[in-house]
Amino acid sequence: MDINQIIKERRSTFPKEFNGEVIDDSVIEQLLENAQWAPSHHSTYAWTFRVFSGESKDRLFDFWHSVAFPTKYEKLEFNQAKTSHVLIITVHDKGKNPLEEEIASTACAVQNIYLGLSQFPNVGGYWGTGNGIYEPHFHEFIKADEDEYCMGYFLLGKVDNKRTESQRPSYKKNVIWMDE
Ligand SMILES: Cc1cc2nc3c(=O)[nH]c(=O)nc-3n(C[C@H](O)[C@H](O)[C@H](O)COP(=O)(O)O)c2cc1C
Fold first, then answer.
1. CA 11–ligand 1 middle distance (angstroms)
2. CA of 115 to the centre of ligand 1 (A)
3. What three-state secondary structure class fits 91?
4. CATH number of the domain residue 91 falls in
């Protein structure tokens, strides 16, 4: 597929679109290998992806359940049943670059995961930042280091048909040509 089309057709696919089947670990490995090719100033590669699947996925959702408001229980249970793998995305402040740069680089790694999904027509996912991922209790649950910050989760699941269509305002709204 043409790169322009891959970029435009990259979508966030949500648990309500997952069919509940389990993704082969080899697919997850490929997505993580793609993440590793993100640009990184001073080659710090300052991200960590913690992979939760099977029993560890259930422990993660059980934790989220234990700290959630009761109004969220139903959605969490639904998401737990539909999701195959969860990647917890963290960034490390290694002191070699401003933290902004490490966050930017980690976001590039996540975009590589998103784009790599184009190679798997029946696998989708999205980057989420809910479920109290910035709270100290979550930091403790994932056994994060002192220099580590959570940037969210990537929920992954199998899909029968992946949505590809979306809308964007013109890029011209976000661009200033300084020679005009
Ligand atoms: C840093 C970041 C955090 C996000 N957090 C959430 C979230 O908590 N919940 C959610 O439904 N989507 C979340 N998204 C996904 C966006 O909602 C999604 O990218 C947007 O709807 C556009 O859809 P698309 O990715 O298919 O183009 C997040 C995206 C980014 C980049």
1. 9
2. 14
3. strand
4. 3.40.109.10
